[in-house]
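Much of the work behind modern protein science is quiet bookkeeping, done one molecule at a time. Below is the pair of lines this work produces for a single protein:

***
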Amino acid sequence: QIYEALQGTQTFPLSIATFPRLLSPGYTEPYFPPQPETSASRSLFCPDEAICYGHPRFKTLTRNIRERRGEKVVINLPIYKDKNTPSPFIDQAPNDDGSLVKYGKPDHIYLDC
């Protein structure tokens, strides 16, 4: 119905596969802060309650992956540079436990979970 109502206009429906505020501060309700020192994933952004709330299987799977690798799972996503992007771009996190220095790369966005 929404799509049909928008036909012929300059407005287009957008379908996204993830929650837009995923991993931004305060994205869980109720609020659960990330605990990088004690959580299963050691993530700076994602609390255990967001990945395994109420089910121990996911918490155990996350912990086992991290333990087999010998370190947490890290993704460094290259940034799009335009004239306003500082060079080098250095990502920051308010609760960084040293992970950004150890795993982060210049001109990349640091992701972990």
Summary: Residues 84 and 107 are 13 Å apart (CA to CA). Residues 56-69 form the longest helix (14 residues). The first strand starts at residue 74 and ends at 78.
